[in-house]
Amino acid sequence: MSNPDLILLHAPSVYDFRKKTILYGPVSDLVPPSPVFELYPLGFASMAEYLERSGFRVRIVNLAARMIKDKNFDAEAVLKRLKAPLFGIDLHWMVHSHGAIKVARLVKKHHPEAKLVFGGFSSSYFYKELFQYPEIDYVLRGDSVEEPLRQLVDCLKNKKEPEGVPNLVWRDSQGEIKENSFSNIPADLGNVMLGHYGNVVRSVIRYRDLASYTPFHGWLRYPITAVLTCRGCTENCVICGGSAAAFRRFYQREKPAFRSPEMVARDVRQISRFISGPIFILGDLQQNGEDYAYEVLRLLQKERVKNQLIFELFNPAPKELLRQMGLASPNFCLEISPESHDPMIRKASGRNYSTEALEQTIGDALDAGCGRLDMFFLIGLPKQTPQSVMDNIDYCGYLLDKFKVGKRLSLFIAPLSPFIDPGSLGFEHPERYGYRILFRTLEKHRQALVSPSWKYSLNYETEWMTRQQIVDISYEAIIRLTRLKAKYGTIPKELAEAGEKRLQSASEMAHRIDEILSKDNYQEELSRLKGEIGRINALPVSEKTELELPVGLIKLKFVRAIWYWLTGR
Fold it and tell me: Rounded to the nearest 5°, which phi and psi values hold at 318?
């Protein structure tokens, strides 16, 4: 088999996480991946499929997932064996800044003749700083780089300078940094993501390498997938690097570009052919207006897939829309993130709606057949004090008592960690929103990730809470909420006890680490804690278990996948 034209690599958050002594804390408790953040971006599949349609070969290698799965997996040895003229590394969110740079160095160590390209939101934001690392040859800016990447690969293949490749910043043969026009911001997404899930299936079979394409550790047990509805956002959440303001300023997108309802439904249909797990429809369907939302739901109802669908809301929704969700996917799951129970804090954070409207949506969704409604709250918001966090937990108790639907209503709270996103309103205008940003450069974020405790990786404090208060109140609040959920039967008592044990142990360890770091020679004492910290990190995360939908028997339809590879149907 010939070498691919491009290999896309996904790095762990911290490259040598297996050797480091790090207390991760609750930084990834409410998402499928671990604190190593091994979930690679959906854009990998989209870029690979787009280039394959143009006749190029692309391979995806999820180094992070493989390093978690197998403690003996030698990532450097694998990188040495891989061969391609171009390697791509995602730096989409800042949590990957340590691992991404380390993997870049290893690629260049073993393949000095190969070129290296970075992409993703954080790459776009820090593109100038990235060229301080001599290993990096190219950075592609923006949220839609399929066509620029195709042109770059074509230039390499034909030994041409990439002077005309849009969105590209590059280092020429003399070491000079050049910025091409940032002009590829497609308003029409009709030519991307046409068969990206099917292309992943073909690639797994072609390279006989399911492990490298696995989205995250544990995916084969719980194969959740996602369907993108748009690029861009209509909302301006203060903490989000993917807000409307961030898209305008840093990714040149003035307004969202939406995929057609037919494309959304087609993705769902294609996924259902290979996987029977839940499918997450990413993005509030209301963003593109009522007609768009109802058309998507009409087509999904027509598909009648057996997979449970997960919808998300950025704002309260009308009763009829929720009813249509129930028709499109009986027993659907719904997710909404009000951020805080307090309307004042919610408004200051960019979620400007009333508590009455929120509770009306909860009731209407449950009446519409919502099998599970997940609600997420955050710690570290503007105007939020330790007392308001605990009041939020009391509000969770009020909701559980008001609706009395047991496991159908799942409530979660977590700290905003490890970073407030560069590019977000809070990061760019901290004084306006009551934030104090503790480090701003890419290198300082990268170094913060290897801190011995998650407290020291937080890149912010607020006028109302210090980093220490954020850590302490996070553990206290999550423990109290865990007890509440056990009381109301939303999680089993045994799971609650396991979750509380983990949180108590982690809280105590966080304080031990603080004490050790106050000493002059702390490295040796800290290294002796590695085994104990590792055991705490490995304790069951009750929130992750609760977030998994009760899907029954999961099947990966390998025979159908092979047939698709052979026939394309």
Answer: -65, 155
Residues of the chain with CATH 3.80.30.20: 223-547
Sorted by sequence, the CB contacts under 8 Å of residue 240 that are 6+ apart come out as 233, 246, 350, 421, 424
How far does Cα 38 stand from its chain's mean position? 9
* CATH entry, 6-179, from 3.30.300.180, 3.30.565.10, 3.40.50.2300, 2.60.120.10: 3.40.50.2300
Phi-psi region of 325 (alpha: psi -120 to 50; beta: other; left: phi over 0): alpha
Residue with tokens 């030994």: 159
**Buried/exposed 532-561: b ≥16 CB within 10 Å, e otherwise:** ebeebbeeebbbbebbebeeeeeeeeeeeb
- pLDDT (0 to 100) of residue 564: 46
pLDDT tens digits, one per residue of 83-123: 999 999 999 999 999 999 999 999 999 999 999 999 999 99
In this predicted structure, what is the pLDDT of residue 437? 98
Q: For residue 260, which phi and psi values (nearest 5 degrees)?
A: -70, 150
**Residue 280 CB neighbours (<10 A):** 18
pLDDT digits (tens, 9 = 90+) for 272-286: 988 889 999 999 999
Stated pTM of the model: 0.95
Amino acid identity at 396: C
User: Cis (ω within 30 of 0) for the bond into 418?
Assistant: yes
Express as a percent the part of the chain with pLDDT over 70. Answer: 96
Query: Minimum mean pLDDT among 194-203, 293-302, 446-455, 463-472: which range?
Result: 194-203
Architecture per CATH, domain 223-547, reads as Alpha-Beta Horseshoe (3.80)
CA dihedral sign of residues 378, 379, 380, 382? positive
43 vs 146: CA distance, rounded Å: 9
Residue 433 CA to residue 249 CA, distance in Å, equals 18
Element (H, E) at 367: helix 355-367
Taking a C-beta distance cutoff of 8 angstroms, is the pair 142, 185 a contact?
yes
Which residues are CB-contacts of 364 (< 8 A; sequence separation ≥ 6)?
Answer: 317, 319, 322, 323
In the chain, list all ranges with CATH 3.40.50.2300: 6-179
> φ, ψ for residue 230 (rounded to 5)?
-160, 165
As a dihedral over the C-alpha atoms of residue 190, residue 192, residue 195, residue 198, rounded to 10 degrees, the angle is -160
Contact assessment for residue 407 and residue 370, using Cβ atoms and an 8 Å cutoff: no
Strand pairing of 230-231 and 257-258? antiparallel
Q: For residue 199, which of 94, 353, 42 has the smallest C-alpha distance?
A: 42
**What is the C-alpha separation between 388 and 386, in angstroms, rounded?**
5
Q: Report the 3 state secondary structure along 277-313.
A: CCEEEECCHHHHCHHHHHHHHHHHHHHCCCCCEEEEE
Mean pLDDT of the chain: 94
- Which strands sit side by side in the sheet containing 58-62, from one edge to the other? 58-62, 6-10, 86-90, 115-119, 138-140, 168-171, 177-179
Q: Calculate the CA 340 to chain-centre distance.
A: 21
